[in-house]
Amino acid sequence: MQNAVCGLAAWMSCALAAIVCSAPPALAQTLPGSGPARVQPAVEQWSIFELVLRGSTEGNPFDVQLSAKFTLGQRAIEARGFYDGQGVWRVRFMPPEPGVWTCQTSSDLPELSGRSGHVTCTKASTPGNHGPVVVRNTYHFAYADGTPFHPITTTLYGWVNQQSEALQEQTLASLRELPFNRIRMMVLPIAWSQDNVPRFFPFQQKEDQSWEFARFDPRFFQAIEKRLGQLRDMGIEAELILFHNRDGGRTGFDRMPESADDRYVRYVVARFSAYRNVWWSLANEFDAIRTKRDADWDRFFQIIQSEDPYGHLRSVHQMRRYYDFFKPWVTHLSVQSELGVTGFGRPVIYRQLSRKPVIFDEPKYEGDIPDGWGRLSGEEMVYRFWVATVGGTYAAHGETFASEPGVRWISRGGKLVGQSPQRIAFLKQILATAPAEGLTPIEPQEQTQGIAGQHGKYYLIYFGKSSPTEWTLQLPRGRARGGTRFRIDVLDTWNMTITPLDQVATIGEEPPLKITLPGKPYIALRIQRID
Amino acid sequence: MQNAVCGLAAWMSCALAAIVCSAPPALAQTLPGSGPARVQPAVEQWSIFELVLRGSTEGNPFDVQLSAKFTLGQRAIEARGFYDGQGVWRVRFMPPEPGVWTCQTSSDLPELSGRSGHVTCTKASTPGNHGPVVVRNTYHFAYADGTPFHPITTTLYGWVNQQSEALQEQTLASLRELPFNRIRMMVLPIAWSQDNVPRFFPFQQKEDQSWEFARFDPRFFQAIEKRLGQLRDMGIEAELILFHNRDGGRTGFDRMPESADDRYVRYVVARFSAYRNVWWSLANEFDAIRTKRDADWDRFFQIIQSEDPYGHLRSVHQMRRYYDFFKPWVTHLSVQSELGVTGFGRPVIYRQLSRKPVIFDEPKYEGDIPDGWGRLSGEEMVYRFWVATVGGTYAAHGETFASEPGVRWISRGGKLVGQSPQRIAFLKQILATAPAEGLTPIEPQEQTQGIAGQHGKYYLIYFGKSSPTEWTLQLPRGRARGGTRFRIDVLDTWNMTITPLDQVATIGEEPPLKITLPGKPYIALRIQRID
Question: How many CB atoms lie within 10 A of CB B450?
């Protein structure tokens, strides 16, 4: 994170951003500790520039309205500020474009208002900084700079609120070795045991232990921000799940008054939206949260859409009943379904009905717990990833082994012991060779195999649980110039081997090419145009 | 149809309804031809009572506002009237409940306003009169009297606007011999040849041949009503498709001004909604009608919801892009999809996403035309009906044989020559034995067969294109009392045979029952509890 202090000393310890932040001299004189404007190093595109302001904490400083308008030519971004405790307010800005942005604050606290300056933003140059992820080609994703993004997701609901910093560090260390480039995590704590009480909670507590919803505990959010920044720097997108009812009823955060809900959503958005790796998920199993109506979810979406100036991806995850995904603020589907990824052709239906990217964020998890949702074999977990892939959609991983003491990745993080992650890494490696447009399911959708690709360029054929020993390959005519030649690899998606064939496939060839296959399950063919 | 004339001679030729329709004496005196109130025979529940009124035709009589409020105890139904030409206005009322309903008209034409009387409605007694169809048990349908309704649909887009009355009569004669209990038909004419110009059009024409959208041609609608009544009396539901773009651009009815659209929708609803067999479909392939936005479709739905006092079923049919079926005015899905009914488990996804009844209204058609959508074999058409059925959904039939001169059932009606209808009749016969709650898909949804039923009562297992010679039947434990016994029939869905097995299946039996099957495709098992 990069800080800039408007006429004040740097408050945070990280590098300073390039800004001449000149408070109007008249006003500056009235501020304690205010001094001359300072020139700071440049801030990189899609990283965070932070304005730090001090003011009077009379009343409830969380009630202070503060925002800063950043302007570059015809483009203006209004970023909300937030109170971070200790008399300090911050406004974070993720510059989407290189150039010299001017900034101007407004606030109902006079000493925070009317501060102006400029921020020099340089072109993204840090390896892995491709900007935030956006929807691309209707059903797929890409970073803002155009680099394709194939979500390879794992589920880490409670990791960020674990009491043990060491466990959190272990989770990060695990992620460094794993293929995942997106994690799903709850903002609010999930159920905890006595030896794992969250260190912080989002709200301050009154003497009677009840929550003071109008006063946040900044430490709770700072701890999350630290992890968000680390994930970002590791190239991992963080889907932040704002509500859930998975704390065993302890906090009551799933049944706050409407005003507290809204205040919480606004605060989270003000704090986190400048992290380029943030995705918003309104809830885990929104339909299980009985205290909220659809109008509440609509309102949360609208608040986020209005207050997040970067338009980070937005969705909501269901248990059984789906939220109306036609609504314009839903950018993609975050589906819980086993059905959708256990038969070829099925994922395509979700695409057709929604015309949005589809992520099967809970297709059940690898593990051995008694609950049906957490006892998939590694093979089955990987199979579901592949069915999703050749359906032009995406799947998510989760792990729940009861047999490994203390390890329950989806809840706490730590280490993975399952067999699927390395195969998911293999899939990721294959996806890296796919066309930038993303994989489009190819008609007709048979029940025995799935085919996706881009006509005339690339085909991926997955045979799932069937074990063919031979496959007659007839590439579709009419979609590419006859005579176009393709090289073929046989992929063993479980044993992670890529076996190039001597044979070459040609559009329109007669008789069609017969390919010998290993007669095992989980085989795929990759067919790439020879240029 | 039953008429009543408020102090006037009966205008239509059918039987008169029971009504004492007493115009206020003072007003009655001012009306030409008004006389004493008359007592008429009773009108049957869910049939049509019609109020006939005469008035001045100065100005545009189609602009006259007219409605009648029918009241029975705490229940009131406001029915819109319409101008039917020749100085006659009508208000139609489908009494939903037996009893003596009072009625009172209001209008901006004084002589039509303030007429009052009462209508005696008797309990439905005509065989086949079960009332209008409503949604039942979330995913299914029933008549208002509770009788289950399994839609067995055929497509007859243009039949009602055929020039030849004889052809229309032939279509009706065909329908009398066919299993279909629901037809999909366009209100507006579809493309026609020179020898088949529609006799009437919905609007009057100006001298320059342009349409006078503010003046309807009642004959057009009277011709449709005649057919609607005949269908109703044959027990056939009529889905009226209000808009389409399938007339080759001849009429321009797909690109009328908004005011003309709305006026047309209101007029259609005022005329037709008292027919108990009416369903509303806003469009065939709404997304192909480029001149309308989603806001238009929303508005049409809202007009219908507001002006149809009986709440007839409402949907809209898509080509590719789906209308937001979460919207509250959509009662069920009317889907165009081949994908959805060509793999087990796929139809279930539409149910899960919508939580509404799903009808695959265009899964492609039986026929031999070059277009891909009209060249299914009979086997394939029937297969799709069964895949839909064991997915807890419904499919629709259509026929397009180019090889049979003059026969193009979906466009014109006439006679069917395909092989599917009698097999669809066989399916209908099987469905008649299904539980009244409807068929619920049973988990897990395998790729090799589909299972639906009601746990502990009834199971229907369909093997589709696979040809098993043996099947191990393990009825799910835990959903019904152990030891419950079931009788089994082997159904050959193509050859239309029902073969009862000597074996009896029992919940929880070990080893599970092995059933010998004929090793042919299109086999199903029907498993019914022995009470």
Answer: 29
